[in-house]
Every structure is written in C-alpha cells, then in structure tokens.
Structure to design on (169 residues):
C-alpha cells in the first residue's frame, strides 16, 4: 500500500525513533509499504518516520526498482565505522524541491538487523554510503538541511515557507 510522505516541518521527522523489537508479519507489511511508497515517489531511500512511523528502520534501493538485488532493508541500523569525505548534492522526499550539497563520509560500515531479526554488517561507499547516512540521520530525527551552513539553511527554510504560503507544499 502506498502511504503518503510526511513533509517538513512535521514533528515526527525531528525526533529520534524507537527500536524495532517485533519481527513479525506487521513489520514485513510495513517494509513492503515503504518500498512501494518510495518507488511511487521516485526516491532511492525512505525512513519509517517519513511515512509517519516512529520506528528505527529504513529501506534503500539505488536502482529504483530496476534490480531486486539492490533492495536493502536496514532495521535498527548503526554506523560502525566511517572514513573519508564526499561533498555532493542531496535531496529528500520530505523536503521536495530543496537540494543542497552536504558533506558525508566517503565510506561506511553499518550493522543492522534483517526482517528475521538477524544482525549483519554491510560496507558502502559513494552514493550508497551517502544514502545510508542520510537515512540513519532520519532515524535520529536529523534532516539534511541541518547539515548545511546556517545561511543555506535559512534560504531553504524561506523557500519552504513561500511554497507553504502558495499552497505548493
Ligand atoms: Zn530524507
């Protein structure tokens, strides 16, 4: 089922999520819904709070549904190691039309649980590392516009307020 994407400044996007403790059918349905909603919105990553669920899980698919092998589910993820630096543009389904360059680690190692509750580790670099860090930020209640300079953030927030006033948000 496609769920609607929660937009800034909804408070659910700005508070830390709760750990997932039940690995059941309900969780599988939630993950299916997250993939479906992400594909419908043409995104490459989606965190549970973005569909209004305050749980620590995220889905990523850089291939945007082209390659089933690239479907990634991270439940209760943590960053174990990060190294290097990359600086590139990011966007977010909860902040449509806002794009800003954000500094991120170039490589990361994350650990997470799968749908059966089993822990695994995964290495990522470049765009995948960026996607993981952006999504894990969501799970901590952090949006990418908090990671740019105050000036750029103010300009982005002003643009959002203008769109809100015009009923375009
Ligand atoms: Zn986002």
């Amino acid at each position: 089922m496609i769920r609607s994407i929660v937009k800034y400044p909804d408070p659910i996007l700005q508070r830390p999520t709760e750990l997932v403790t039940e690995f059941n059918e309900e969780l599988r349905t939630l993950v299916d819904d997250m993939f479906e909603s992400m594909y419908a919105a043409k995104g490459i990553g989606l965190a549970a709070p973005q569909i209004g669920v305050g749980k620590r899980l995220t889905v990523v698919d850089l291939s945007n549904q082209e390659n089933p092998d690239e479907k990634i589910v991270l439940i209760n993820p943590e960053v174990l190691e990060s190294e290097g630096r990359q600086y590139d543009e990011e966007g977010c389904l909860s902040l449509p039309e806002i794009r800003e360059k954000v500094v991120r680690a170039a490589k990361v190692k994350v650990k997470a649980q799968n749908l059966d509750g089993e822990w695994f580790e995964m290495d990522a670099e470049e765009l995948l590392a960026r996607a993981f860090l952006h999504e894990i930020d969501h799970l901590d209640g952090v949006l990418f516009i908090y990671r740019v300079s105050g000036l750029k953030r103010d300009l982005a927030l002003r643009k959002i307020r203008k769109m809100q006033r015009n009923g375009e948000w």
User: Anything to note?
Assistant: The two ends are 23 Å apart (CA to CA). The CA atoms of residues 8 and 95 lie 6 Å apart. The chain has a mean pLDDT of 97.
